[in-house]
């Protein structure tokens, strides 16, 4: 699959660990995943059907565990958002066959619309830049306007795929 | 039931064929496989599909679609009065998202025949 990246890199992203206050006044800790997937399993079991995208996350616990094992590999990058110790958001970067990384983000329903998604994606991009990752892409269902707006605000540019999903890409270096 | 299975040039296509054949053996569905290529070679796909059909020991017709697979599948299904079109549910992205392509989109939007996606 070929993705066209913008010519100009975007930089200045914050790096984990960091704590932000969301628009509801909640303290959100953003940290790199340490390999423990248990609290993410709990988070994904609580996920609402309408918040699934393109078949992920899976719905059943064994499938969630299998999927998390596949995306939380050593050459990937995962940042988790926690409130009072519980996982409420997760952003993942998984390498593709072209040396670039696919990004996806999930935020638990009661924590949506409070700026956590933006903070998570920006923090993951900061960690990615630190790791030397230079290109990141994602696909988003084309009717999901809030998500498209969020990615555009961060600096992703649309790069085709006007079918069910829109492809967007960002250059870090 | 008469089922038209659209098989593309991917591993996923072969898997969709296998699960459709398995079901057809139970229900007695009458299968036709229509092969199309989105990236690779249609000849290779056709020989892989014919091999697999032989291994699975099932009786089904094989047709080749050389261009515009979406519209040709819809046309074929209507003209020959199939009851269902089966498509493989697309490839997966590195982090597991289902990727539907323009063939899926065309068939889902334009077919008056029932469409089944195999995931």
Enumerate how many helices of chain A there are, as a single number. 4
Structural class of the secondary elements of chain A?
alpha+beta
CATH architecture of chain B: 3-Layer(aba) Sandwich
Helix amount of chain A: 25-40%
Overall tally of structural domains of chain A = 1
Largest interface: A-B, 18 and 14 residues
InterPro entries (chain B): Rossmann-like_a/b/a_fold
Protein name (chain B): Universal stress protein
Pfam families (chain A): Acetyltransf_1 (PF00583)
GO molecular function (chain A): acyltransferase activity, transferring groups other than amino-acyl groups
Structure description:
The complex is a heterodimer of chains A (about 170) and B (about 120). Chain A has about 170 residues and is an alpha+beta fold. Chain A has a single domain, classed as Aminopeptidase. Chain A is about 25% helix and about 30% strand. Chain A contains 4 helices and 8 strands; from the N terminus they run ββααβββαβαββ. Chain A has an 8-stranded mixed beta sheet with strand order 1-2-3-4-5-6-8-7, sandwiched between helices. Chain B has helices at about 10-25, 40-55, 70-80, 100-110; strands at about 1-5, 30-35, 60-65, 85-90, 90, 100, 115-119. The mean pLDDT of chain B is about 90. Chain B is globular. In chain B, the strands form 2 sheets. A 5-stranded parallel beta sheet of chain B has the order 3-2-1-4-7, with helices on both faces. Chain B has one domain (about 1-10, about 15-120): 3-Layer(aba) Sandwich (Rossmann fold), CATH 3.40.50.620. Chain B is α/β, with parallel strands linked by helices and about 120 residues long. The interface of A and B includes residues 102, 104 and 139 of A.
């Amino acid at each position: 699959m070929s993705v066209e990246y913008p010519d100009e890199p975007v930089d200045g992203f914050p790096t984990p660990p960091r704590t932000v206050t969301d628009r509801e006044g909640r303290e959100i800790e953003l940290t790199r995943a340490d390999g423990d997937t248990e609290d993410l399993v709990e988070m994904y079991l609580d996920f609402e059907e309408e918040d699934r995208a393109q078949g992920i996350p899976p719905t059943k616990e064994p499938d969630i565990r299998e999927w998390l094992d596949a995306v939380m590999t050593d050459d990937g990058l995962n940042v988790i958002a926690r409130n009072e110790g519980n996982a409420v958001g997760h952003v993942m970067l998984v390498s593709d066959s072209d040396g670039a990384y696919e990004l996806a983000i999930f935020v638990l329903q009661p924590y949506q619309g409070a700026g956590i998604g933006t903070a998570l994606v920006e923090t993951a991009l900061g960690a990615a830049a630190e790791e030397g990752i230079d290109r990141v892409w994602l696909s988003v269902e084309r009717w999901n306007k809030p998500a498209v707006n969020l990615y555009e605000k961060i600096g992703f540019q649309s790069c085709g795929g006007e079918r069910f999903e829109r492809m967007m890409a960002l250059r870090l270096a | 039931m008469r089922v038209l299975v659209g098989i593309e040039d991917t591993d996923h296509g072969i898997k969709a064929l296998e699960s459709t054949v398995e079901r057809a053996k139970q229900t007695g569905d009458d299968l036709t496989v229509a092969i199309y290529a989105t990236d690779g070679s249609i000849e290779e796909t056709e020989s892989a599909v014919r091999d697999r059909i032989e291994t699975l020991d099932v009786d089904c017709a094989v047709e080749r679609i050389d261009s515009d697979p979406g519209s040709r599948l819809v046309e074929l299904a209507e003209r020959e009065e199939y009851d269902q079109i089966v498509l493989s549910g697309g490839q997966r992205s590195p982090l597991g998202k289902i990727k539907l392509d323009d063939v899926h989109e065309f068939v889902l939007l334009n077919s008056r025949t029932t469409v089944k996606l195999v995931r």
